């Protein structure tokens, strides 16, 4: 039996008269990587931040590890890992100093080097945040979610803007974190990423969940409707153009 670790029921969020989240319900199982997919403005970050206790909801029920968000948000905070905003990364502190600082916020003594090793940044321990590459910054940001040994971590578009190599590094890191039993909720715009990482995904559109299943099952469901991907077969490629124009193959020198 899979155990439900997050239960969201009829969640609504209005910003003034704007209805951003329209009564969504879903469960996240312990130990899974759960994806929230959807276009910009769908309501993904709003939903995540409500569960993370960072935003208030308009109505609905959120239970995290049997704790009711309405009753004990502080208890929820203690068992979840939230990505800290890059703006909080004081520019003149080293990575080790930053981790120790954040550990202080959780009232915890943290093994900073061990944490940096987990995200492959041990050799950068004395570097400043601003000196890191985009991929390293994101890995450091993921490390900050692990400071309080959480049961669940929340990653909002962790790979946006990264090059393919850095993206894949982050995928492996996320899989490693999950393999230790941590539940992961992630949002992404990349479908290849969701297919590779997520056990189940909810597709959100305009504040509503339009589908929720494993990537494999969602694809099978689509194929079962008779859908076929349009084939893009052209009768020539750019190399053919080149040969026609120059008379040479690309590989032979004249
Ligand atoms: P996503 O993360 O899926 O891109 P968001 O949850 O950030 O979507 O936003 C959902 C909708 O709510 C968007 O239309 C956005 O403009 C609106 N929204 C988000 N935050 C606020 C806010 N603080 N005040 C007013 N509207 C907001
Ligand atoms: Mg967002």
Total number of helices: 9
Shape designation? globular
What is the chain-wise order of helices and strands? EEEHEEHEHHHEHEHEEHH
Amount of beta strand: 15-25%
Mean pLDDT: 92
For the largest beta-sheet, the strand count, sense and barrel status come to:
6 strands, mixed
Bound molecule kinds, no repeats: adenosine-5'-diphosphate, magnesium ion
Strand order within the widest beta sheet: 6-7-8-3-9-10
- The structural class is alpha/beta
From the alpha carbons, calculate the radius of gyration and give it in angstroms: 22 Å
The tally of beta strands, per DSSP, is 10
What are the segments in which pLDDT stays under 50 over at least 5 consecutive residues? none
Task: State the helical fraction.
Answer: 25-40%
Question: CA-to-CA gap between the ends?
Answer: 68 Å
């Amino acid at each position: 039996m899979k155990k439900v670790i997050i239960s969201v029921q009829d969640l609504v969020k209005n910003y003034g008269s704007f209805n951003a989240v329209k009564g969504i319900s879903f469960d996240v199982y312990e130990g899974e990587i759960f994806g929230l997919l959807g276009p910009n403005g769908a309501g993904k970050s709003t939903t995540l931040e409500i569960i993370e206790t960072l935003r208030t909801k308009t109505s609905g029920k959120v239970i995290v590890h049997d704790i009711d968000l309405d009753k004990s948000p502080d208890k929820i905070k203690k068992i979840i890992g939230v990505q800290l905003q890059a703006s909080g990364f004081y520019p003149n502190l080293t990575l080790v100093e930053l981790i120790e600082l954040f550990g202080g916020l959780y009232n915890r003594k943290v093994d900073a080097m061990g944490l940096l090793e987990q995200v492959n940044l041990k050799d950068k321990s004395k570097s400043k945040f601003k000196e890191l590459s985009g991929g390293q910054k994101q890995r450091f940001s993921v490390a900050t979610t692990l400071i309080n040994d959480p049961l669940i971590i929340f990653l909002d578009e962790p790979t946006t803007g990264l090059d393919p190599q850095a993206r894949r590094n982050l995928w492996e890191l996320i899989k490693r974190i999950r393999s230790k039993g941590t539940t992961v909720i992630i949002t992404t715009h990349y479908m290849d990423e969701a297919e590779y990482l997520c056990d189940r995904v909810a597709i959100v559109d305009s504040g509503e969940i339009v589908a929720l299943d494993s990537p494999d099952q969602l694809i099978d469901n689509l194929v079962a409707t008779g859908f076929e991907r349009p084939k893009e077969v052209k009768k020539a490629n750019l190399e053919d153009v080149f040969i026609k124009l120059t008379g040479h193959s690309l590989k032979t020198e004249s």
